[in-house]
Amino acid sequence: MRRIHSRLPREQKLTEPVDHERIIRRGKVALIFAVTPQRVDQLARAGVLRKVRLPGSTRALGFLEKEVRELLVRRQETSAQGVPHA
Predict the structure, then answer these.
(1) What is the rounded CA–CA span in Å between residue 40 and residue 33?
(2) Which residues contact residue 43 at a Cβ distance below 8 angstroms, ignoring those fewer than 6 apart?
Protein backbone atom coordinates (compact mmCIF):
# COMPACT_ATOMS: atom_id res chain seq x y z
CA MET A 1 0.00 0.00 0.00
CA ARG A 2 1.46 3.35 -1.08
CA ARG A 3 1.25 6.47 1.01
CA ILE A 4 -0.30 9.36 -0.84
CA HIS A 5 1.25 12.00 1.41
CA SER A 6 4.73 10.65 0.75
CA ARG A 7 4.72 12.51 -2.58
CA LEU A 8 4.85 15.88 -0.81
CA PRO A 9 8.21 17.41 0.07
CA ARG A 10 9.17 16.94 3.72
CA GLU A 11 9.19 20.70 4.41
CA GLN A 12 5.65 21.10 3.11
CA LYS A 13 4.34 18.26 5.27
CA LEU A 14 5.92 19.59 8.43
CA THR A 15 5.71 23.36 8.12
CA GLU A 16 2.56 24.10 6.12
CA PRO A 17 -0.42 24.80 8.38
CA VAL A 18 -3.53 22.82 7.59
CA ASP A 19 -6.68 24.89 7.37
CA HIS A 20 -9.56 22.88 8.82
CA GLU A 21 -13.05 24.29 8.75
CA ARG A 22 -15.67 22.84 11.04
CA ILE A 23 -18.91 21.79 9.42
CA ILE A 24 -22.20 22.16 11.27
CA ARG A 25 -25.20 20.02 10.37
CA ARG A 26 -28.53 21.56 9.41
CA GLY A 27 -30.23 20.69 12.71
CA LYS A 28 -27.53 22.37 14.77
CA VAL A 29 -27.71 25.50 12.59
CA ALA A 30 -31.46 25.54 13.21
CA LEU A 31 -30.85 25.37 16.97
CA ILE A 32 -28.29 28.19 16.84
CA PHE A 33 -30.71 30.49 14.99
CA ALA A 34 -33.80 29.21 16.85
CA VAL A 35 -35.55 28.35 13.57
CA THR A 36 -36.76 25.16 11.92
CA PRO A 37 -34.51 23.07 9.66
CA GLN A 38 -36.82 24.02 6.79
CA ARG A 39 -35.99 27.70 7.40
CA VAL A 40 -32.29 26.83 7.23
CA ASP A 41 -32.97 25.24 3.82
CA GLN A 42 -34.74 28.44 2.73
CA LEU A 43 -31.73 30.51 3.80
CA ALA A 44 -29.48 28.20 1.78
CA ARG A 45 -31.70 28.47 -1.31
CA ALA A 46 -31.70 32.27 -0.94
CA GLY A 47 -27.89 32.28 -0.87
CA VAL A 48 -27.62 33.53 2.72
CA LEU A 49 -25.82 30.32 3.78
CA ARG A 50 -23.68 28.09 1.57
CA LYS A 51 -24.04 24.33 1.78
CA VAL A 52 -20.86 22.26 1.89
CA ARG A 53 -20.79 19.34 -0.52
CA LEU A 54 -18.17 16.76 -1.38
CA PRO A 55 -17.09 16.67 -5.02
CA GLY A 56 -19.47 14.46 -6.98
CA SER A 57 -22.00 14.42 -4.16
CA THR A 58 -25.57 15.63 -4.38
CA ARG A 59 -26.21 15.73 -0.63
CA ALA A 60 -24.81 18.50 1.50
CA LEU A 61 -22.71 17.74 4.56
CA GLY A 62 -23.77 20.91 6.34
CA PHE A 63 -22.61 24.50 6.65
CA LEU A 64 -19.26 26.07 7.52
CA GLU A 65 -19.19 27.05 11.18
CA LYS A 66 -17.33 30.26 10.36
CA GLU A 67 -20.08 31.43 7.98
CA VAL A 68 -22.83 30.49 10.45
CA ARG A 69 -21.13 32.47 13.24
CA GLU A 70 -20.62 35.49 10.96
CA LEU A 71 -24.29 35.45 9.96
CA LEU A 72 -25.30 35.17 13.62
CA VAL A 73 -23.18 38.23 14.51
CA ARG A 74 -24.63 40.24 11.61
CA ARG A 75 -28.14 39.24 12.65
CA GLN A 76 -27.52 40.32 16.26
CA GLU A 77 -26.01 43.65 15.13
CA THR A 78 -29.00 44.32 12.88
CA SER A 79 -31.52 43.56 15.61
CA ALA A 80 -29.57 45.71 18.09
CA GLN A 81 -29.68 48.67 15.71
CA GLY A 82 -33.47 48.40 15.40
CA VAL A 83 -34.01 48.59 19.18
CA PRO A 84 -34.66 52.15 20.40
CA HIS A 85 -32.19 53.33 23.03
CA ALA A 86 -33.52 54.79 26.27
Answers:
(1) 9
(2) 49
For the stretch 36-77, pLDDT in tens is 999 999 999 999 999 998 888 888 889 999 999 999 999 888
Nearest C-alpha neighbor of 43 from the set 20, 57, 21, 24: 24
Q: Which domains does the chain have, with CATH numbers?
A: 19-82 (1.10.1660)
Helical ranges in the chain per DSSP H: 10-15, 26-33, 37-45, 65-82
What is the 3-state composition of the chain as percent helix, strand, coil, each rounded to the nearest 5?
A: 50, 10, 35
